[in-house]
Design goal:
Layout lengths: L1 E4 L20 E2 L5 E5 L9 H9 L1 H17 L5 E2 L11 H12 L15 H11 L12 E4 L1 H13 L5 E6 L4 H8 L3 E6 L8 H7 L4 E7 L11 H18 L4 E5 L15 H4 L3 E6 L12 E5 L6 H14 L7 H6 L10 H17 L12 E2 L8 H10 L2 E2 L1 E2 L9 E4 L4 H18 L2
Parallel strand pairs: 1-3, 4-13, 6-7, 6-8, 8-9, 9-10
Antiparallel strand pairs: 2-3, 5-11, 10-11, 12-15, 14-15
Helix pairs in contact: 5-10, 7-8, 12-14
The chain binds pyridoxal-5'-phosphate.
Pyridoxal-5'-phosphate binds next to helix 5.
């Protein structure tokens, strides 16, 4: 299909009289169909999606500008900290297991399976979860999914009625808004404290009869914060109190794809120990660098009330969202790698390199305890302006406003060490210009 812009020279009708007319469809002289581009007249994608595209267009713009800069200055001279795409390769064990699994072709191993996933895979995941939870998780509590994003959509679809609210401590992973909208849920961001820990009083004040769940992410994207046991227990106390008051459970959904990426001896408490009405969702995208393989899972707390109905809901949603089941070959690989990860000390080294450089240049930030992001304050209230100034130095970051955390920026340090080292003088020059 040929697409022409409204600004292009007008085409004359062909000999059959089928020409191009504003807002219509025609053919060019060769018979190829032409779609004139009159955006305001032609309804292509839905209004909602068009609005979403427009809302996210600055991200696209940034991405495009980044590509232009790479073409102009050479990729090695552009310091791209904009994406959370792990730069480390999967551990060598992954490839060995993959080859073995591919060679052990069992009959039907590429076919459909129970929508929740292979029973042996789910049992292996349950056994792993029982190493840091009350040891009662069973294979039935696990649904294998298409990444953590798939798991979140499955859980949200299963629990949300239209218009129900989900409280999200902010700043937070920007896709949550879209996932909620998929299932007619409404995000209710509640700012965290200055050190990005949970503000349980503010969460309590935000709960209404419309609140269906609280969605947390630890280690956190974009802040690198890990929620400790004490604050999680305080949150559990708040949710228990309001669930009793309202007569139905407020769920806690814990998104944990960065669980294994933690530093300095910090550990992530098992959420099932803390609050019975909880789900854990996660994936192998970050800790095994398998983001493209789309493998993850959702786990239901074995102590959840109506556990069986909820589990049935997740299995159905995995199917009817069109995932049907998680990728079969990855389900056979993952049981061998549940205790593996990429070399986390490499990410710790990157964090230290970056944090030491930023601190020396006067950046103000909370040192991340996990994940591979740091979320410094921008010295200007207008975070987009500061991010634009960094871009002039070929440093690509993301304004905090995109994570409901204005006045900050996100730096994703899952990049080569050299990128960090070579970017530091640019970070320093821009800070010098703006620091009062
Ligand atoms: C906090 C958080 N949750 C979920 C996801 C989605 O992960 P996946 O690729 O496993 O779907 C991401 C990806 O960046 C993330 O940062």
């Amino acid at each position: 299909m040929v697409e022409i812009s409204a600004a292009a020279a007008p085409l004359t009708p062909d000999r059959n009289g089928r020409g191009v007319f504003p807002g219509g469809i025609g053919t060019d002289g060769s018979g190829a169909r032409i779609q004139p581009y009159h955006k305001e007249l032609v309804m292509t994608v839905s209004r909602k999606i068009r609005e979403s595209i427009e809302r996210s267009s600055w991200i696209r713009k940034m991405f495009e500008e980044g590509n232009e800069r790479k073409a102009r200055y050479g990729a090695e001279n552009v310091f791209d900290f904009s994406l959370g795409n792990p730069n480390l390769e999967p551990p060598p064990a992954f490839r060995q297991v993959l080859i073995k699994v591919a060679q052990d072709a069992l009959p039907g191993c590429h076919g459909y399976m129970p929508n929740a996933g292979f029973p042996e895979t789910r049992q292996a995941v349950a056994d792993y979860l029982n190493t840091f939870n009350p040891p009662r998780v069973t294979a039935d509590d696990i649904v294998m999914t298409s990444g953590a994003g798939g798991a979140l959509n499955v859980v949200l679809k299963a629990i949300l009625n239209p218009g129900e609210e989900v409280i999200i401590p902010s700043p937070y992973f920007v896709e949550y808004n879209n996932y909620l909208e998929n299932h007619q849920g409404v995000p209710r961001p509640v700012p965290t404290k200055a050190d990005f820990s949970l503000d349980c009083d503010a969460i309590s004040d935000t709960i209404t009869e419309k609140t269906r769940a609280v969605l947390i992410d630890s280690p956190n994207n974009p802040t690198g914060k890990v929620y400790g046991e004490t604050e999680l227990k305080e949150l559990a106390g708040v949710l228990t109190h309001h669930s009793r008051r309202l007569g139905e459970p407020i769920y806690l959904v814990s998104d944990e794809p960065y669980r294994k990426i933690v530093y300095d001896g910090v550990t992530v408490p098992g959420i099932f120990n803390v609050y019975p009405e909880s789900f854990m969702v996660t994936s192998f995208s970050k800790d095994l660098s398998l983001a493209g393989e789309r493998i993850g899972y959702a786990a239901v707390n074995p102590d959840m009330s109506d556990r069986e109905e909820v589990r049935g809901g997740l299995v159905l949603c995995n199917r009817i969202l069109g995932y049907v089941n998680a990728p079969a070959i990855m389900q056979r690989v993952i049981p061998h790698l549940l205790r593996e990860s990429v070399d986390i000390s490499l990410y710790r080294h990157k964090r230290d390199l970056l944090c030491e450089g930023l601190a020396a240049s006067g950046y103000d930030f909370v040192k991340p305890q996990g994940a591979f992001y740091v979320f410094p304050r921008t010295p200007l209230p207008d975070d987009a302006e500061f991010v634009a100034a960094l871009r002039e130095e070929n440093i690509l970051t993301v304004p905090g406003s995109g994570f409901a955390g204005p006045g900050h920026m996100r730096i994703a340090y899952c990049v080569p060490d050299e990128t960090i080292e070579k970017s530091l003088p640019g970070f320093e020059r821009v800070m010098k210009r703006y620091r009062k």
